[in-house]
Amino acid sequence: MMRVQPVCALLAAGMVAATAACGPSGERVTDERAAGERAVAGRAPVALAAPVTETPPGAETPLTTGAPTATGTRPPEETVKTLLEQSLPGVKGKTFTSKTVAFPPGGRSVPHRHGNAFVYAYVVEGTMRSQLGGEPVGTYRQGDFWVEAPGAHHVLTENASQSEPAKLVAVYISNTGEKLKVDD
Predict the structure, then answer these.
(1) Which CATH number belongs to the domain containing residue 142 in this structure?
(2) 41 lies in which domain range?
(3) Which residues of 93-130 are buried (b: 16+ CB within 10 A; e: fewer)?
(4) Tell me, what's the pLDDT at 146?
(5) What is the spatial distance between Cα 103 and Cα 179, in angstroms, rounded to a whole number?
(6) pTM, whole model, 2 decimals?
């Protein structure tokens, strides 16, 4: 029980930091829209977490990571910004990290994994399409969230819009020192 309380407090702190950095979500998921989608925690469809790379807190890193298209060009890159990274108090060997991941119109990430990290992702702007290996493609709108089990394989992570940006916040509980994103 003692280990759960610091984690919950840090998750809440990370979401407060993310909300302050990204602004409130504004839109709520309606029962009508959620109908027919498989839900987690009674609200959001099951999917994967946001693509994230190691960056110093506060630094923005544009990534050209999308898979080449049929013409040989890469889709637009995502931009990652670390909001908070710190050791979990009372939980030896674990680190709490929160990041924003912004996708320009048509932006995507290459297939990847997040190692042994537990991931919580929250869409703060736009609409994302994501897929874990062996699962159907899911569509996630502003206000939707999902969790990802350690070791899950992201085979699709993309902005669903060709004209509007998308942004999400990813919160990780990981082994200290472990890389948070490993591309295929």
Answers:
(1) 2.60.120.10
(2) 4-183
(3) ebbbbbbbbbbbebbbbbbbbbbebbbbbbbbbbbbbb
(4) 80
(5) 21
(6) 0.65
